[in-house]
Amino acid sequence: MLTVGSSQAVAEEFLGNGLLSCPGCGGRLGGWGHAARRVVFAAGRVAVAVRPWRARCGSCGVTQVLLPAWLLARRCDATAVIGDMLARAARGQGFRGIAAASGVPEGTVRARLRRFRSSAGRVREFFTGLAGVLAVDPVPLDPAGSVLGDAVVAVAAVVAAARGRWPGMVTVPGWELAAVLTLGSLLSPVVRFAGVRDGVAASALA
Question: What residues are paired with 48 via a beta bridge?
Fold first, then answer.
């Protein structure tokens, strides 16, 4: 599973130009059809049908699903919807209020917040370190009052630092940049982190 750019068109362009490497062996990824069609809910509970590209490594033969940054792995809501849930929770809003604001069932919201809290320490550590690398004039991040809140603050710091360092180049919304840097695994049982070249993952600039 790889997160690539902001759209299916970006993934297609990367594949066509041979710009994607296998995360396992480093070989070149080429087009390999599509993954199964899925329905994802954007803001306002708008249903969007999507069928991500699939790629295959020419060296080791392993296949990868290429998710656009507005999707997370195995989640039926868009990245922005889930990011808004996390931001609201960081501000102290409870799961019932978040569910009412987003239209997502209460049980789903509660489960997602629980999942994120379980990995929030690692997320905070990775993004805090990256913010320190990217920021022109890095400053310590103030504690947000919770592990989840600290992680959300660290994500926001990376977004601000990346946009400040490369004005006009980092074009994806903040939570989509976080999706790229966590390989779409922000709410997965084990969060993975992208390799960073020149301070930022190349696919985050598309």
Answer: 40
